[in-house]
Amino acid sequence: MPLLLGCIADDFTGATDLASMLVKNGMATVQVIGVPTGPLPEADAIVIALKSRTTPAREAIAESLAAAEALLAAGAKQIFFKYCSTFDSTDAGNIGPVADALLKRLGAGFALACPAFPANGRSIYQGHLFAGAHLLNESGMENHPLTPMKDANLVRVLSRQTEGAVGLVPFSVVEQGSQAIRQAMIRMAEGGRRYAIVDAVTDGHLVAIGEAAAHHPLITGGSGIAMGLPANFRAAGLLPERPDAAALPPAKGMCAVLAGSCSRATLGQIGFARDHAPTLELDVLATPDAKALAAQALDWVEGKLSADHPVVIAASAPPEKVAALQAKLGRDAAGALVEHALAAVAQGLVARGVGRLVVAGGETSGAVVSALGVATLRIGAEIDPGVPWTYAEPANIHLALKSGNFGARDFFLKAFAHV
């Protein structure tokens, strides 16, 4: 099975989100945790999950280039740099710097940038990113503890991160279809633009954009843009039909949810779960000690684990509590505290027989996957848009890694009806 599409994701939930999109569209896909140190598994698409969204730009560039080298050595015909559908990135990076480095490595001078994902309410119109009906900077993302997004104009945001010029392929062009999009991007590249933000408000737009970029060495964006990529390989005679692309081993063991995200969606999911399942909300501000928090959670869970319904353990908090914790400990230390605590809880849960685990939050997912020693994730069926079940090896458990902003309000309950 030759490798067709090589993907680099800047966090773990984003990687599974992308992998899910590819599987849903017929590509056998494996997610690899961290920069590979050995041969890659056989698959149509490989998604390398990095934890580079919030690291210093120099580290993010180095890891992303190392991942690209592994994918190219395995024969990847196209590289995809995947970031969040809310374009999470400070003015210092890391989206622009990483994309610049990948373009240089690939010998390319131009790439599109499109984080749109209409199924989850992310759309781009006239270069402005919307979350549902709200501009990004009015959606709650302006309060993100690590990457506060205070500008919805992606042309401006990306321009602050790169020395290259950034243009826009507007809605009026995108509506005309793939050929018009392709020609617009050619003109931009010939005119010296390095990037084009591409408007998209429907799945049909994303499919057309993907078709227009069939021969681009590098694509950057959210998982939505991957919707149209498998068809390109199929049209070229490189990708056979794969009706079993989402097959996973049977699920077993107890059920649990860990939540570290502070997004509005995750806070709503915790609120719903509180009325339907045993739920523990850790007070990180009152107990700013990872070891003590983990001990609290594992003591609480005794006698509550079940194979029929989950327990929910959350270290999420509303913006005012997050701000207070960051003021007390510092931004990075506050984030690391939550990650370390929930990673230790995950280890304890698996030792107690949990075989089906949902994790909410990109940083939290990265910490949990690392703590469990996961090397690869086989991608299964989707629970909600952008969130699949996966099979983690060598841990041999089922994991669902949920971006904080994704999933319906009842996600923590219904996930276990899908595996």
Radius of gyration: 20 Å
What is the fourth-level CATH superfamily of the largest domain?
Putative sugar-binding, N-terminal domain
**Multimeric state:** single chain
Helicity level, as a percent range? Answer: 25-40%
- For the record, the CATH architecture of the largest domain stands as 3-Layer(aba) Sandwich
Enzyme class: transferase
Domain Four-carbon acid sugar kinase nucleotide binding: 256-412
Pfam family, one: NBD_C
Protein name: 3-oxo-tetronate kinase
What's this, in brief?
This is 3-oxo-tetronate kinase. With 419 residues, this protein is α/β, with parallel strands linked by helices.
Blueprint of the fold:
Blueprint: E1 5-9, H1 12-24, E2 29-33, E3 45-49, H2 57-73, E4 78-82, H3 95-106, E5 111-114, E6 122-125, E7 128-131, E8 134-135, H4 154-159, E9 165-169, H5 171-174, H6 178-190, E10 193-198, H7 203-212, E11 218-221, H8 229-235, E12 254-259, H9 264-274, E13 279-281, H10 290-301, E14 311-314, H11 319-329, H12 331-351, E15 354-360, H13 362-371, E16 376-384, E17 387-393, E18 397-402, H14 411-414
Parallel strand pairs: 1-3, 1-4, 2-3, 4-11, 5-10, 5-11, 9-10, 12-14, 12-15, 13-14, 15-18
Antiparallel strand pairs: 2-16, 6-7, 7-8, 16-17, 17-18
Helix pairs in contact: 2-3, 6-7, 10-12, 11-12, 12-13
Catalytic activity: 3-dehydro-D-erythronate + ATP = 3-dehydro-4-O-phospho-D-erythronate + ADP + H(+); 3-dehydro-L-erythronate + ATP = 3-dehydro-4-O-phospho-L-erythronate + ADP + H(+)
Enzyme class: transferase
Pfam families: NBD_C, SBD_N
